[in-house]
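Workshop exercise sheet. Pairs work together: one partner reads the sequence aloud, the other fills in the structure field after running the prediction. Swap roles for the next sheet.
Pair: D.N. / O.F.
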Amino acid sequence: MAKSDYFGLPYIVSVILAIIPVTSWVLGFITRFSDGKIVAGIIRLIFGWNIIWICDIILMIVSKHILRLLPV
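Structure field:
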């Protein structure tokens, strides 16, 4: 089974978690903080409930990864 971006969870579990707004918001900034991307985590914390959430759903289905706003 393919792994995806939310802590290596199975793909289908990650898609379901991405669809739920609260879990997508929480797991999005936790994932970015755990990657060591503090600024990206703060941006997700502030803006992760709107456009970023929709982009996360689309990208999780298409590429199995969440949106990377700051690639550094």
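Discussion prompt: DSSP finds four helices and no strands in the chain. What would you look at next?
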